Amino acid sequence: MRALVQRVREAWVTSSEDRDGPAEQVGRIGPGLAVLVGATHDDDVATAHRLADKLFHLRILDDGAGDMNLSCADTGGELLVVSQFTLYGDARKGRRPSFVAAAPPDLAEPLVDEVVTRLREHGATVATGRFRTYMQVHIVGDGPVTLMVEV
Question: Which of 3, 67, 100, 104 has the most CB atoms within 10 Å of its CB?
Fold first, then answer.
């Protein structure tokens, strides 16, 4: 699994059935991490748990002295988790990315749900997007701090 993680002051996601449909806000957080999550074909529940554990304990939050020494586990920082199959896009050849490495929705959705469940088991406040809908993710970055995490 892969996650693009951005430290945020706040973030929210809206969802609609199609690009031009009415959008509904489905998730919102304050200070913490906005996390775009992608799955590939050989990922499983154990992989989802490793990713969740890594995200919860990732020390990229400010410690008050200007250093990245704290995690969501330390601060109670919130997480916005949004599925993102395009993280497995491959644009090395040509101009149109290939998404063959991305897990199909029937495999990816329960794995992303498992990441969210595991984060909540740790005591994290987690907001989410809505799988298989058109989403707009609004991020107010903090830093900016952005990392690619892969487990």
Answer: 3
